[in-house]
Amino acid sequence: MAVPIHQTTSFSFDNAQHAADLFDLKVEGNIYSRIMNPTCAVLEQRVAALEGGIAGLAVASGMAAITYAIQTIAEAGDNIVSISELYGGTYNLFAHTLPRQGIQVRFADKDDIDGIEALIDERTKAVFCESIGNPSGSGRPNKAGRRGASSWGAGDCR
């Protein structure tokens, strides 16, 4: 079934109490399109169903998705391992922003599987590889990256 595109920034409320309950998160519903809207809700539900997940989250960009993913699983004192050949925005997030938040990022060459595995320890929360690196178009160490991540119980972000 085709879903309409809800092109709106705000939604109407039944009354002031209904609005207050929505903003206090006492009841579920649409408040403002930046937070959620019916079109995004359907997208999130359908992607979750396709991927076998329990929920999904639609965000505005790939960088938002990467930032959300890493900041959800890692905190100060944790680390992630990443290939060094990355999109510039991802590299800046990993090399500059995350370290300021106390999340260490350890870089390895994408072709050095042993080097990737050697950087994984008990505080590693993810092994990050871009499926197709931008701007080089190079690939990722798919099976080997997952092997190293799973052997330590870390996630495989790709």
UniProtKB/TrEMBL annotation:
Domain of life of the organism encoding this protein: Bacteria
- Regions of compositional bias (Low complexity) in chain numbering: 147-158
An example GO CC term for this entry is: cytoplasm
The record's region (Disordered) falls at 131-158
Q: Molecular function (GO) terms listed?
A: cysteine synthase activity; O-acetylhomoserine aminocarboxypropyltransferase activity; pyridoxal phosphate binding
Keywords, comma-separated and alphabetical: Pyridoxal phosphate, Transferase
The alphabetized list of GO BP terms reads: cysteine biosynthetic process from serine; L-homocysteine biosynthetic process; transsulfuration
InterPro entries given for it? Cys/Met-Metab_PyrdxlP-dep_enz, OAc-hSer/O-AcSer_sulfhydrylase, PyrdxlP-dep_Trfase, PyrdxlP-dep_Trfase_major
Q: Which cofactor does it need?
A: pyridoxal 5'-phosphate
Similarity field: Belongs to the trans-sulfuration enzymes family.
Q: What is this protein called?
A: O-acetylhomoserine aminocarboxypropyltransferase
Native organism is Vreelandella sulfidaeris
